[in-house]
Design goal:
single chain, alpha/beta, ABC transporter transmembrane region fold, elongated, six-stranded mixed β-sheet, 2 domains, 10 strands
Length: about 600
C-alpha cells in the first residue's frame, strides 16, 4: 500500500512536471478554471428550470438556493422566469464548453510544438556529439528517436494536460453534486475511488508493456537500418531469408505488444462506463430512499452523464500516459547522453589562408591501438596535399584529426597560430567540403543532388560547377539534362558519374578546403583519370587534401606524404619521391606489377 501510494505521488509529480514544461500551460489552466466556474454557475441554474417544468415553485431543501437566484436577478433589474433562467443556464454551460474546446485545442497544438522542439534538439545534440562516442552508437536508434520517440514525448505532454483537464472537470461536477446531495457525492467518490485504484493497477501493466514495446522497436529500427545500408548483400546472400525472418519476428512481437496494450486501455475505458451506468441505474432505483425529488434527480443524472465520459477519458489519458512515460524517459536519457558527450570547442576562428601544421602529434584510440607517434606534417593553403600508405597506417585517422573529430593524445595541431584546443571547430568545418568513397545521393533529379540544402542558387552557378567537375558531357547525355531523375542513391548513373556528381555538389558549396577521402579508389582507370584531371584544375582555387592508397591518383599533388609506423616517412613531390627510390617507389611498383597466386 505504501509503495502504491509512493508510485502514485511520483506519477502525479511527473504529470505536474510535464504540464509546467508545456507551452502556454498557464493559459490552458486559466481557461479550465474559468470553464469550471461557468459550470458551477450554469448547471445549478437548471434546477429551477426543472422545478418549473415539474410544476413546483422550488423543490424541497432548495428554498435558500432559489431565494439567492431571485435576489441576484432582482439586483440587476430582472424578473426571474422559466425562459430567462434557462437562457442564462444555457449561456454559462455553452461558454464553459467553448473554453474547454479552446484549451483542448491549445494543448493539442502544444504537443506538436513540443515534438518539433524535441526533434530539433536531438539533431542539434547529434551534430555536437563527440565523434568517438557517436560512432559507437547505433544509427537505427537515432532514427527511432527522431521518428517515434520525439512524437511520443509530445503525446506524453498532451496526455498530462488531458489528465489535468478531465480531473478538473470531474472535480467541478462532483463539487456541484455536493450542493445537491452530500450522500450521493460520497457514494460517487467511493465508487470512482475504487475504480481509480483498479485503473492504477492496470496502468502499471501498461507501463511495463510500453517498456518492452520501446526496446523491441529499437531493435527493429536497427535491423532495418542495417538492411537498407547493405541492400545488395542481403538481397543476394543466404542471410537474406534469415534477416527477413528476424525482422518479421520483431514486427510480430511489436504487434502482439500493441494488442495487449490496447486491450488494457479499452478495459479501463469500458469499466469506467459500466460502473457509471450501474451507479446511475442505482440512483434511479433508490432515489426515494436518497430523499431526491424529480428535478434534483434529473439534474444529478445529467451531471453524472457528463462525468461518465470525462472519467472514461481521464482513465484513457492516464493509461496512455503510462504507455508514453517509458518512451519519454528513453528520449530524455538519449538527450542526456548526447549532452554529456558533447565535443569541446574553442573560440578562435580559422582562416583558410593559413597552413595546418601537425607538430609532433601522437594519437592512440581508447582501446590502446597507437596510430601516430610524433607525426610532423604541414598542409599548405591553396595547394594539393596527398597522404598515401598501406591499409591501417592511419590515413583516415589523420583526416579525423585534421577536421577536429579526434584530439591528439600528445603534441599540437596548429591552424595558423591557433592550437587545436583553442580552435572554433565550426569555423574550420564551415569551410570544408568532403567527398568520400561511399557517395550518398538523394532520390531526385541531378539538380536536386547538386543543390541539396541550398535555396538561393542560379542555373548559371549550377552549370559552372558542372563544368568544373567535368560533368558537362554526362549532363548533355541525360534525357532531361539537370532535371533528369537519377534514382535512389544515383542508381541510374555509373560509379564514375556518381563520384563526379558528388564532387560537383562539393564545389557547389563554395568550399575553401576540399577533402577527397579515397574518392576514386573504386573507380575504373578512365573514370579515375577524368576526376584526376578535374582535381588538377581545381588546386589553384582550393586547399585540397587527398587520402588514397592509389599512387596513380596523386601524381598532380604539390606534396605527397607517405605514412608508415606512425610517422611521415617520406615527404615531397611525385618526381622527388620517385627519385628517392624509397617507400613511395616501393608502393608504386607493387601497384603496377600484377601479383600471381602460386
Amino acid at each position: 500500500m505504501i509503495n502504491s501510494t509512493k508510485k502514485t505521488l511520483e506519477k502525479l509529480s511527473f504529470i505536474y512536471k510535464l504540464i509546467i514544461s508545456s507551452p502556454r500551460y498557464k493559459l490552458i489552466i486559466l481557461l479550465q478554471l474559468v470553464s469550471g466556474l461557468a459550470s458551477i454557475v450554469g448547471l445549478p441554474l437548471l434546477l429551477p428550470v426543472l422545478s418549473y417544468m415539474e410544476g413546483n415553485s422550488s423543490p424541497a431543501g432548495q428554498e435558500k438556493y432559489f431565494q439567492f437566484i431571485e435576489l441576484v436577478l432582482s439586483k440587476i433589474g430582472l424578473e426571474p422566469n422559466f425562459y430567462l433562467i434557462l437562457t442564462i443556464a444555457a449561456f454559462f454551460i455553452l461558454f464553459g464548453q467553448i473554453l474547454v474546446f479552446i484549451s483542448t485545442l491549445l494543448a493539442a497544438n502544444a504537443q506538436v510544438e513540443i515534438s518539433e522542439k524535441y526533434k530539433k534538439e536531438i539533431f542539434d545534440a547529434y551534430s555536437k556529439a563527440d565523434w568517438l562516442w557517436l560512432i559507437d552508437n547505433r544509427s537505427g536508434e537515432m532514427n527511432y528517436s527522431v521518428l517515434n520517440e520525439a512524437d511520443t514525448a509530445g503525446v506524453a505532454h498532451l496526455n498530462a494536460q488531458r489528465v489535468f483537464i478531465y480531473l478538473l472537470q470531474v472535480g467541478v461536477l462532483l463539487f456541484i453534486t455536493v450542493k445537491l446531495s452530500f450522500l450521493i457525492t460520497f457514494l460517487a467518490v467511493v465508487v470512482y475511488g475504487i475504480l481509480a485504484i483498479l485503473s492504477s493497477l492496470s496502468s502499471a501493466a501498461i507501463h511495463r508493456l510500453s517498456e518492452i514495446y520501446n526496446d523491441k522497436y529499437k531493435k527493429l529500427a536497427n535491423d532495418l537500418n542495417g538492411l537498407q545500408q547493405n541492400k545488395k548483400f542481403f538481397k543476394t546472400s543466404l542471410l537474406n531469408r534469415k534477416s527477413v525472418e528476424g525482422i518479421f519476428s520483431h514486427i510480430s512481437d511489436i504487434a502482439f505488444n500493441i494488442k495487449k496494450q490496447n486491450i488494457r486501455i479499452e478495459m479501463q475505458r469500458t469499466l469506467s462506463l459500466f460502473v457509471t451506468f450501474v451507479f446511475l441505474i442505482s440512483l434511479m432505483f433508490f432515489y426515494k430512499q436518497l430523499s431526491l425529488n424529480y428535478s434534483t434527480l434529473l439534474l444529478v443524472l445529467l451531471i453524472f452523464v457528463r462525468i461518465a465520459p470525462q472519467f472514461s477519458m481521464l482513465s484513457a489519458a492516464f493509461a496512455s500516459l503510462d504507455s508514453n512515460i517509458p518512451i519519454y524517459c528513453s528520449l530524455h536519457k538519449r538527450l542526456e547522453e548526447f549532452h554529456s558527450n558533447e565535443e569541446k570547442n574553442g573560440s578562435e576562428g580559422f582562416q583558410s589562408s593559413e597552413s595546418i601544421n601537425f607538430d609532433n602529434v601522437s594519437y592512440s584510440y581508447p582501446n590502446g591501438n597507437k596510430v601516430f607517434d610524433g607525426l610532423n606534417v604541414v598542409i599548405e593553403p591553396k595547394k594539393a596535399t596527398a597522404f598515401v600508405g598501406c591499409s591501417g597506417v592511419g590515413k583516415s585517422t589523420l583526416l579525423d584529426l585534421t577536421l577536429r573529430l579526434l584530439n591528439p593524445t600528445q603534441g599540437t595541431i596548429f591552424y595558423g597560430d591557433i592550437p587545436h584546443d583553442r580552435l572554433d571547430k565550426d569555423s574550420l568545418r564551415s569551410k570544408v567540403a568532403y567527398v568520400s568513397q561511399e557517395t550518398t545521393l538523394v532520390d531526385g533529379t541531378l539538380k536536386d543532388n547538386l543543390t541539396i540544402r541550398v535555396s538561393d542558387y542560379t542555373d548559371e552557378k549550377i552549370w559552372k560547377v558542372i563544368k568544373k567537375a567535368g560533368l558537362e558531357e554526362v549532363v548533355n547525355g541525360l534525357a532531361q539534362g539537370i532535371d533528369t531523375p537519377i534514382g535512389e542513391n544515383g542508381i541510374q548513373l555509373s560509379g564514375g558519374q556518381r563520384q563526379r556528381v558528388a564532387l560537383a555538389r562539393a564545389l557547389f558549396m563554395d568550399p575553401e578546403i576540399l577533402i577527397l577521402d579515397e574518392a576514386t579508389s573504386s573507380l575504373d582507370v578512365q573514370s579515375d583519370l577524368l576526376i584526376q584531371e578535374t582535381i588538377k584544375n581545381l588546386k589553384k582555387d582550393f586547399t585540397i587534401i587527398i587520402v588514397t592508397h592509389k599512387i596513380s591518383s596523386v601524381k598532380f599533388a604539390d606534396m605527397i606524404c607517405v605514412l608508415e609506423n606512425g610517422k611521415a616517412c617520406e615527404v615531397g613531390s611525385y618526381s622527388e619521391l620517385q627519385a628517392k627510390k624509397g617507400k613511395f617507389h616501393q608502393l608504386e611498383t607493387l601497384q603496377k606489377e600484377p601479383i600471381y597466386m602460386k
